[in-house]
Amino acid sequence: MAEKKQEQTYERKMARLDEILTCLDNSATPIDKLAEDVKEGARLIKDLEKKLKEVETEVADAFKELEEKGQ
Length: 71
What we know:
90% of the residues lie in helices and 0% in strands. The protein has one domain. By secondary structure, the chain is an all-alpha fold. Helix 1 runs antiparallel to helix 2. It has helices at 2-25, 31-70.
């Protein structure tokens, strides 16, 4: 169940990042909020990259374990 919650968190972060990027692309972000949104986007990117690296390591470890059991 905890894995599902983490997945939703990742998905929410991706959705928020997409929302920020869309507003920036469309010049829909008010200038007074621009720096705030850019900082939030940078934080989201950092969090998402960290999560992807964690998952990549977990998947690699799982495959390594499978290979070791198969030998």
